[in-house]
Request: fold
Amino acid sequence: MSEAVLLRPAPVRAPDRVPVRSAAPVRVAGLDGLRGLCALYVLLFHCWAYTFKGFPRTLGPSWLHWLGMGRFAVIFFLVLSGFSLALSAAGNGWRLGGVRRFLKRRAWRILPAYWAALVFSLIITLTVVKMPHSAPPNTRSVVVFGLLLQDVVPAPTPNGAFWSISVEALLYLTFPLLLLITRRAGVWTMLLCASVPVVVAGLILDPPWFADRHLAWQLLPVFAAGVAAAGILRADDRVRRLPWFWLSMAAAAPVAALMAIRGGAWVVRHYFWLDLAVTPALAMLVVALATARPAPLVRFLSTRPLVWLGSFSYSLYLIHLPIVVAIYLTVVKPRLGHSLEAFAMTTVVAGGVSLITAWLFARLFEFPFQRHRSVAALLRSRPQRTS
Reply:
């Protein structure tokens, strides 16, 4: 997850034009709603994947196969993350304002909720049901996941969704370097430096050999594309007024058609290349929304329910999977097995519990760390006891 799910709700409306040289953080209407929809899609993907046995060759009805692309919602999160982090820097000559300050603020933003979700996940997996396809978590799991090393060090998982949090954290370490390259040599050079080594490695190595781990370096081009997209908003009017939405649709169409034709099993085997293939379309879609076009889509994504959903999408992503697995395996499966009725019940019950729990979780472990930037400020915000 990501800055893509880590920002506070945006105002419902945004200006049509983004100041070209402003160094102040820019809030983009529609992106919070998009974060919320992505997190909701990942929730539905897991309800679908665990209900219908055998992912990616599921036994579910074909008209629900559109739910099998949860991976690409996470790819979208990474594009949004690079974009959101780079907006201010792009308006300030691609200057970060201090590596230490940046990393400290990132840690303050993601770690409290993540560590709380880690404890929550450990409790469920040790007392209710373990994650499928993994041994029960152990001391090694606590250390590896607590230090966000799960992308590079194997350990039994307490929460299958946590893979992307490690990827996100490792990509943060590359962000200052991406900005430095952009400032010294330009956006295209930065994209080439991030992408060419990954593509060459993919051509030389066998992608399935490293597909389940070491994803941060594979997904660096995705993150870098989000950074580059932020630069477009600082370009002149001619560039900003390009039909970015339709360019995005044109780039997405052949990839979507290929995935639909070849099927889920083929898609999973080719995640490495498909992640890279969908990235330009996703980056251009972010630019389209950031330039307030198409206006009807921006207005829809800025509606109050979607902005509300986006406000706790990080928490929803962090804690939904143990809830879905526990409810399906202990409540739904013994009664309905793998069936459409089981999917409906899992979606309604586990989805509803996940949304409610995530909202309460965010109020405790996410929102306070958005409002206050230090331990001292957080402590001062607590109500004082009167004698």
Q: What stands out?
A: The chain has one domain: 3-374. The first helix runs from residue 31 to 51.
